[in-house]
Every structure is written in structure tokens, then in C-alpha cells.
Amino acid sequence: MNKTLLAVTERIRQRSATTRGQYLEGLDRLAGRKRGVDRMGCANVAHAFAAMPGNDKLRIVAEKAPHLAIVTAYNDMLSAHQPYEAYPALIRQEAHAQGATVQVAGGVPAMCDGVTQGLPGMELSLFSRDTIAMGAAIALSHDVFDAALLLGICDKIVPGLLIGALHFGHLPCVFVPAGPMSSGLSNNEKAKVRELYAQGKVGREELLKAESAAYHGAGTCTFYGTANSNQMLLEAMGLHVPGAAFVHPHDPLREVLTRQAVRQALSITHKQAYAPIGRVVDEACIVNAMVALLATGGSTNHLIHWVAVARSAGILIDWSDFSELSGVVPLLSRVYPNGAADVNQFQAAGGPAFVIRELLKVGLMHEQVLTVAGPSLQAFGKLPVLEQGGRVAWQDLAPESGDESVVRTAEQPFSATGGLKLLDGNLGRAVIKVSAVPEERHIVEAPARIFSDQESMLAAFKAGELERDVIVVVRFQGPQANGMPELHKLTPPLAVLQGKGFKVALVTDGRMSGASGKVPAAIHVSPEALAGGPLGRLRDGDVVRLDAVSGELQALVPAEEWAAREPARITEAQALENGHGLGRDLFAGMRRNVRTAEEGAVSWL
């Protein structure tokens, strides 16, 4: 085993000793109770099962058959979640065949960040995670279930479901994915059209045509953003049926894997195989997720989300843990925006199974961990295949990559270190995704131009005011200010400026997420400007140094002058705009109570 991996895991274990101990004590108290129908009053039981067929009631009450919950994030606004419409019937059919029963315990909200990018709805996006967690808790609060199947894929939905489920940590839980959409217009071609549109060289009609050719059917978007990073991390945590992440929605194997998820959940309910989610998600499991993120250059959102996920299981992690692991974890995959391939090409080249197998081989993942498939992660380094008779089997992958431009062995990685870096300095702590950024762009030193919203920056770009070396600073975009929206509308103009040969970078207390691309971006700056963070001290023209090699984020201002400066304040008009209209008023309590990005931006502590 890698010494750094072991040291980080042990440090997390010691740091979390008190909170993890308290969590496990609570889990064991709940796990030791009688079944729901045996401890509940008759009226409670009657209400719980009133709408079920009589034979199902008999199975639950008299035969004491296992009873499964479905918590679903289905809606057909999200292409990734549209296939879930048919899942409850399929799951119920398989459960009946296995002598068990099922109820849809509840639905949770699921929003598409692609729809809300650059719009007021994006200011609800981060907080939707904790809303989903609460929705999952409400669904499971009926407390009549022996296990749960969690139906969710996209950005905030998986972390939210995980957080909610971990608050019912005594239950066995299996995540059930639905797979990616088929490949359309390549991500590189789509990005080129966006840049042409930003320069006014193509119109809205051409842009819409390109976007519609890229996002065209059921399934997750095919770039390696937060949604697909979620799936990679769930594989590394052992919370899927092994290899389920990137099988297409309409592949015959997909239905078989969904049925297998039911059988997997039922097998865990037997005490000899008892693996509740609160035991599966331990310190080693969390470290495995962190390693998987780094080895694949995954979404920067997970430096927020997985801090919150870990905290839900009593485990305390921070960005220093990610940074230390990044120093020893090799980059094994290049999927857009870190490369030209999409997730379908990633899957064809070996996918999550190849990456996990390679990391296990060199001691960069914990192998002996609880999973929904047994007490080892080895099964997640194999590929599921459809056998005659409609059963699934797992086969070993070839030793070599199916495409070395997409995935590589641990002995010949794309890079010796991971794709994420911690930055620190007099501007605070931030993270940067460097896996897609050319090495000559890892250090940028230039005068700052300060903005308080995306629209002002876009207006300055269109007016030609940024045609120079520049570090664009967009502040008052943190969780307390406006819910920490993603700032993807900034990517095309910044890419245009960089393409003209200028030294360009972005510094913000907002987010850029898994679609962060080739422009250096120091994001999640903490503390945020609204909370008095040092971004508020910056002035137009201050020289800023972003150094992803040394891990430095520094305003090159004399220390005495810097200390004497009063932080800028958000304008009354912007504060009013951030908090009102289109549902934003309802999230005022979350904005008041939210912790920093490095603390997981949780609103429930």
C-alpha cells in the first residue's frame, strides 16, 4: 500500500475518532431494533401499506419478507433521469420474483444545471443538494424499510441522496444508475462553436444547432462533468452493482444490472452479509473516492460535496487531504474537458473498472473494504457482461488499455500526479483543476480586473476591455452571497482571450465544476468575499499571482497596505437581487447558515 495513502487515511481516522464513534453508536442503536412492522402500532402499519395489494401486505406482515424503499430523483427535465420513469415497475417485478416487496418511499427534486447556467435558477443549485438530502430523509422517515434503492445520477442529486441515506446509516443502500446518452456532436466541436459565438462570428441559430447535436437524447451528458464524476466515485466506493455506471440506458445489459441491484440489496439484508451504508462509507471508502476523483481529473464540485458526504458519516476531511493525495495519485484518464474523448469512449477503453484495477494494483486504493458486492473492491475492477439466460457475469479486463489516448496503466500515466491542486495565500484557500490546463499556463501573473457578477465581466469582454494579460476576479459568488453558482458563461470569453495569446486566469469564490477547461481557474476561494474574505481587498490593477506548481494564490501588494485595506462590500442592489425572485427567497435561511466551501457548504450543521 502507498505510504501517503495510508498516512492520509490514518490522519482522517484520528481526526474523526469522536464524530465517527458517535455516528456508529447511533447506527448500531437503530440496527438493533425490531423490523418496522413488528415495532409499529397497528394504525401505523395499516397506513403504511394501505394502497398495496393484499398479497404484498401478507408478505410484509405475516411472512416477514424484506421490504425495499425506492427513493427516486425521476423527472424528464433531466435527460439523465428520464429513463427512471420505468424503473419502479421493473424493480417491483424483480422484488416480487425474489419474494420481497417494494414501495416508492418518495421523490426528491432534481434540477439540471445545464438549463439554469447563467440564470437565477443556478443560485438554487448548490442548495438543492441539502434539499435533496432532506427529501431523502423524509422519504425514509416512515421507517418501515429493510433496505433502499437510490435512483439518482446528476450533479447535486447523488451527493444529496448520499447525505440523506447516511443519516439512515443502518439501512443497506444500493445506487441504481441509468447510463450516458449516446455520443453526438463532439465536446471539442461544441466548445469551438461556443467560442465563435462569444466572438460574434456565428449566430444563435448555429449555436443552438450545435448544442442540440451535443445534448440530444436520454442519458447523462457525455463530458466528464459532475454527473459522470459522481458515477466514477460511486464505483470506487462500492455503492453500485459493479460496472453499472456507464452502460447505455437502452443497452439490454442495463435492465439486467437494474434487476441485479434489487438482488444485491436483498442479499445485504441477510445478517451474514449485513453491510449498511453507514458501515460501507468509512474512512477508507472516502479515501478511495478521493483517489478516484484525482486519478480521473474529475469535477471540482466534489471538493465541496464529498466533504459534506463524509461529514454525514462522521468523517472529517478537508482540502489538504485532497492535495496530499494528489501528489501521489497518477492521472490515468483523459475525458473531455481533460481530453478529446467522451464517457462512451472512456467506457469502451476500459472505464471505471480499468482505473480501479490499476489503482488497486499499485496500492493506491484500499482493497479490503465493505461494498454492496462483498468485502472487497476487486469486483469493481471487472467488466459486467450479459450472459445467455439474461444473467450478468463479470470478466477480467485485458492488461492493456483499450485506447491509450483515453485511459492508461498506472505504470504509464498521463501525469504522475492528480488533476486537482490546492492554492493558498493572502487571497485565501482555493482549488484549481489543472488536468485540462496546459503546463505553460500553470503559472499566471497579471493585473486583476474586478467584477461582482458574470454579466459585468461579459459586458467588459464585448467592449474589448480585456484584450490584455489579465486575471479576472469575480467575487460575491460564494454560498452566503448567492448560493455559489457555477460560472460557465465565463469560459468561452476567457478561452477566446487565451487563444489570442494573452495570459489569462479566473479567480472567484464561485464554482466552475466538472466542465472546468483549459483556462486556469482558482475557484471556491474561501473565506468568500461576503463573509469578509480577502478577495474583498483586491482592487483593479493589483497584480495577482496564481501558481499551480507551488500552490500559491497571492495578491502582490505590500503587506502593510494589504492589511490596512477595508474589504469591499456587496452593493445593496446586488444583495437584493441575490435574495429575491424565482424561489430564491425560500433559501434565505440556507444562505445565512451555510458553512464555507471547504467545510462542504453544508447548511444543516
TrEMBL record:
Cofactor(s) demanded: [4Fe-4S] cluster
Gene Ontology annotations of biological process type: D-gluconate metabolic process; Entner-Doudoroff pathway through 6-phosphogluconate
Name this polypeptide is given: Phosphogluconate dehydratase
Family (UniProt): Belongs to the IlvD/Edd family.
Domain Dihydroxy-acid/6-phosphogluconate dehydratase C-terminal stretches: 406-601
This enzyme's EC code(s): 4.2.1.12
Single Gene Ontology MF annotation: metal ion binding
Function: Catalyzes the dehydration of 6-phospho-D-gluconate to 2-dehydro-3-deoxy-6-phospho-D-gluconate.
Gene name as annotated: edd
